[in-house]
Design a protein that fits this description.
The chain is of the alpha/beta class. The chain has helices spanning 2-14, 40-63, 65-89, 99-111, 123-129, 174-181, 189-192, 201-223, 272-287, 304-315, 329-343, 374-387; strands at 30-35, 115-120, 142-147, 160-165, 196-198, 230-234, 240-242, 253-256, 261-262, 268-269, 300-303, 318-319, 347-356, 392-398, 411-417, 425-428. Helices cover 40% and strands 18% of the residues.
Length: 431
């Protein structure tokens, strides 16, 4: 709602209208999609839940204006305003509406009950709600569409700025996920500043991979007609073999491109009694490697065998990946082995830093997913790649304090930085 109010204020300013005299039926209308389950009983429940929430908001608007405005302020100042400020720096928006302007439009929305929920669970619903162009009609200022497979069939919806997406099948074919990813495709830059996509971490990771694949394809096309994307997979015997892109499961795909970082997050460490001796073993092993250093902006080289040993040892430190990306030692070893084959080298840069502290969770409750510093850690890694084009293994020894949400014992958080690759690769790590 706050996003709609922002876009309406911008529309009024762009068209030189008077805020008070601008009739609500002449203002732009927007859409939100709820695509979570294909079962009709579930969709009926979702639609009734949305309607109940809208009724509660309307009741709050009429009887508890202070709590109502607190919700608006939270969304405006903590979520959408930072996006608008970024958009202004990029010249995407000409005007950032004030809180007062936004609040006025929201009050108008509730005054005229300018919102409605639509259940799209059959082709007949689509026909009934379609306009002359075949698009779903936007009958009110805020249109909430709840649907299942019908929404997968190329329906076009104008001014779509909100997505609640929960489709998570056990196996996700890449072409299917690519089709679903079109829903948040090209749009007005002003709309982009207020567009929101709500989902769970595993689905977000799949969508991120689709974005990386699409980006890799664009890079390959820009390089010319001889450029290509290599599709490979790790077979059950551990060998890396070519694969058919039509058979790729997006849930098992990692897109490999130049200087990409790979790292686990969303994990819980083992108990202190098990974690501390494991970390001490890693300490001893690292210090036994010739040239070992933990000085800032200084690294040493390890071979593939040492890389495999380090990753196997670190993988025993983590458990319970409820959200985020797991450390899959077989996948990491296979990726480094493939790159070593391509570049005829058995060496990897290793950059160790100790004394790091990071909270297990962000302030919003999400798991921390940025263990490195861009300037120092990644900056050094890219400098080493420029000097010698081989992968970099960053090992960040975290203190693991209980006050930071950990188990009170140190652990290593690994990060791989890929070298410059001649061509992107789609790597399916599990057949």
């Amino acid at each position: 709602m706050v996003g709609v109010a922002i876009r309406r204020v911008q529309f009024i300013k762009e068209n030189g209208l008077d805020t008070i005299e601008a009739k609500i039926n002449l203002l732009p209308r927007f859409a939100f999609i709820f695509h979570i389950d294909t079962r009709k009983s579930k969709m009926n429940w979702q639609a009734s839940l949305i309607e109940q929430y809208l009724r509660e908001l309307a009741d709050m608007y009429e009887n508890d204006s202070e709590s109502f405005e607190d919700l608006i302020k939270e969304s405006y100042f903590n979520d959408l305003l930072p996006s608008l400020e970024k958009g202004e720096k990029l010249n995407w928006v000409d005007h950032i509406p004030s809180y007062g302007e936004v609040l006025y439009q929201i009050l108008e929305i509730f005054e005229y009950e300018d919102f409605q929920t639509f259940l799209i669970n059959s082709d007949n619903n689509v026909i009934h709600l379609a306009n002359d162009d075949g698009q779903l009609r936007l009958e009110t200022g805020l249109n909430f569409f709840v649907g299942g497979q019908v929404l997968d069939r190329g329906i076009t919806i104008d001014n779509l700025i909100g997505f609640f997406y929960g489709r998570s099948p056990g196996k996700s074919q890449m072409d299917t996920v690519m089709q679903h990813a079109r829903m948040y495709g090209a749009r007005d830059k002003k709309d982009l500043c207020v567009t929101r996509f709500y989902t769970i971490s595993p689905i977000r990771e799949r969508m991120q991979e689709i974005h990386d694949i699409d980006e890799a394809l664009r890079v390959a096309l820009q390089k010319g007609e001889d450029a290509e994307i290599i599709c490979i997979q790790r077979a059950q015997n551990g060998r890396i073999i070519p694969t058919n892109p039509n058979r790729i499961l997006i849930s098992n795909v990692v897109t490999l491109k130049s200087k990409k970082t790979l790292f686990p997050y969303g994990f819980e460490t083992e108990p202190k009694s098990k974690l501390l001796p494991q970390t001490e073993k890693i300490d001893q092993y690292l210090k036994s490697i010739n040239g070992y250093t933990e000085e800032i902006r200084n690294s040493f080289k390890i071979n593939n065998y040492e890389f495999d040993e380090i990753i196997d040892k670190i993988s025993k430190s983590f458990k319970h990946y409820d959200e985020g990306v797991a450390l899959n030692p077989d996948m990491w070893k296979a990726i480094v082995n493939r790159i070593s084959m391509d570049y005829d080298t058995k060496q990897i840069h290793c950059y160790v830093q100790t004394g790091r502290r990071i909270s297990r969770f962000k302030k919003n409750g999400d798991p921390s997913d940025n263990p490195y510093t861009t300037t120092t850690d990644i900056g050094h890694a890219r400098q080493k790649i420029n000097e010698e084009n081989i992968p970099v293994l960053i090992l960040l020894r975290q203190e693991g304090l209980e006050e930071d949400g950990w188990k009170g014992a140190p652990f290593y958080w690994p990060v791989i930085v890929l070298p410059e690759l001649e061509r992107p690769m789609l790597f399916e790590w599990e057949s």
